[in-house]
Structure formats: C-alpha cells, structure tokens
C-alpha cells in the first residue's frame, strides 16, 4: 500500500472527497490527517473514515523536525495539502520534494501568494473582472503558490457572479478533480 497524508486547516471538504476516493482503493490509502487547528472540521471527518489524525503546533512544525519522524512512522509516501494555511518550512519541502502537492482556488500564477486564501481569492477574481476561474493543483516549493502547475480546471465567471458564486463553482471542480489527480501522481511518482 502507498500511504497518503492529508494536511488541512479548515472544513476539510476536499479532504473528505480524497478519503472517499481512496476508501476502498487497492493500492493507496489515506494513512494520516495532519491539522494545525483543534477545531478543524477535517478531524471529525478523519474519525468517520477511521483515519488517524494528529495536531501540530507552530513551534514543533517550524522549529523542530519532529513531524518527519511521525510521518516516517506512518510510512507516508505522498502528501496532499487541502486548505492547509501555513507555509511549509524548507526542511519539510526538501524531504517531500516531488511528493507533495497543493490545491489553490484560482488559476495561478494569477491570484496567488501571501494573503490569497479563501474568500480573498474569489473577491479579487471578481474585482478584477475575470471571465474565468478554477483550481490549480501544483507542486509545493518553498515559496507560496509558486511550484510548477500540474493541473488546472476552468469555470466561467459571469459579471453577475458574487465571490460566493465563484467559490462554489471552483470548489466543485476541486472536489471533482483533486482526488484523481492525486491518484495519478502517486501511481506515477511513488515506486513501492
Ligand atoms: C479550497 O478552496 C482550496 O483550494 C484551498 O483551501 C480550500 C479548502 O477547502 N487551498 P476545504 O477545507 O477542503 O473545504
């Protein structure tokens, strides 16, 4: 079995779709959920799928390399960030280079970088008068939202769309594509 870890800080709707996708998969399993928020919805979702979860705090994540040991114990091969709001520190990126992806709710390189998360992204897309938006799945590097793009999906943005409308359409595309893109990457890049 190839072991996937999901890192999430929030509601965890993508994490849920990923767990559903791999629930009865023959060669990939979600082996761990990592969150930095005790009240993150993703923790309850992990419980429902019988996936172990751990909480991390700033000090251990940024000032020690302890999390690497935990990931080794769970034999993690690949990491999917799904609404994980901390910048991943260099020691961690180096260890999982080429085996860690993120999903961003806009068509990078537009509308990425510091402060561009959640509704801020969709507000900016609306304010810029964009005619389309959609999620970007990209490799994680040391700079926010700068890793090479792996996959994008597009949906129209109508002049009458609110930020909430855009968010809903983009999220639907995330749910539809993120699990299968992750699956393809694991099959391709994790040799076991
Ligand atoms: C998604 O929009 C994703 O693009 C971004 O964070 C959001 C996570 O949503 N990185 P959810 O917690 O999976 O519902």
Give the topology, please:
Blueprint: E1 2-8, H1 13-22, E2 28-35, H2 41-48, E3 53-55, H3 58-63, H4 66-73, E4 78-81, H5 90-96, E5 100-104, H6 119-127, E6 132-133, E7 136-139, E8 149-152, E9 155-156, H7 163-189
Parallel strand pairs: 1-2, 1-4, 2-3, 4-5
Antiparallel strand pairs: 5-7, 6-9, 7-8
Helix pairs in contact: 1-7, 6-7
The structure holds 5-O-phosphono-beta-D-ribofuranosylamine (GRF).
Bound molecules: 5-O-phosphono-beta-D-ribofuranosylamine
| Helix/strand structural class | alpha/beta
Kindly state the number of beta strands.
9
**Helix percent band:** 25-40%
**Count the helices. How many?**
7
The string of secondary-structure elements, in order, is EHEHEHHEHEHEEEEH
Strand content: 15-25%
Strand neighbour order, sheet with most strands: 3-2-1-4-5-7-8
Task: Tell me what you see in this structure.
With 192 residues, the protein is an alpha/beta fold. The chain is built from seven helices and nine strands, in the order βαβαβααβαβαββββα. Helix 1 links the parallel strand 1 and strand 2. Helix 1 packs parallel to helix 7 and helix 6 crosses helix 7. The site of 5-O-phosphono-beta-D-ribofuranosylamine has 15 residues, from helix 1, strand 5 and helix 7.
